[in-house]
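Two records follow; treat each independently.
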Amino acid sequence: MKHSKSCVSRVLHYLRKGRGLNRWYTAWELQKMMTEGFGIGERMIFSESTITARIRDLRKNDYGSYTVRSRKRTGASSWEYQLQ
């Protein structure tokens, strides 16, 4: 569960950074930021499926009941996410 909590907090951190900018992120973009955004000693790589699972967790009561919008990225097959 510790790994899961760590990933949830990192996903939330980056979604919050984009909130004031009206920014949408794909799971791949979040994965890239999460890998590069922390020091070498803390580097962890989370799969895109793990990141989307943690986004679903953020919507649950146990993780804060956040409103995370999702939509299909225009001209692509990927989904993108935005914290309200």
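The next record belongs to a different protein.
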Amino acid sequence: MLAVMRKRLVETHVFRAGQQHAHSLSHGRALGAGSPYDDDMNIGERIERRPDLLGGQPVVRGTRVPVRALVGSLASGMTIEEVCASYRVTPEDVRAALGYAAAVLDEDKALGGASPR
């Protein structure tokens, strides 16, 4: 149950905040000013959003693999290696997806989003 709740939370935040910042990510910039996540994870180089691809959901660049699928798989207990094998992505792609999700949650917090309890 907790994994499902986490997945829904991440999906909601990733989609909502990702829509607001699609332009930033597609041009290699972090979600928020001074985001600590993009520097080490190359989010802008690995994650993209295009209106013609999965309705604009954030995906691993050059694939149809949604960020939410990678994050959700990790939340359900899969290892990074298992996720990579299942979705045919690299460990760097998975880390970028996690960085994207973390940056989106950080952005939501900075904008005064309610913290779930």
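Discussion point: The CA atoms of residues 84 and 95 lie 11 Å apart. How would you locate this feature using only the token line?
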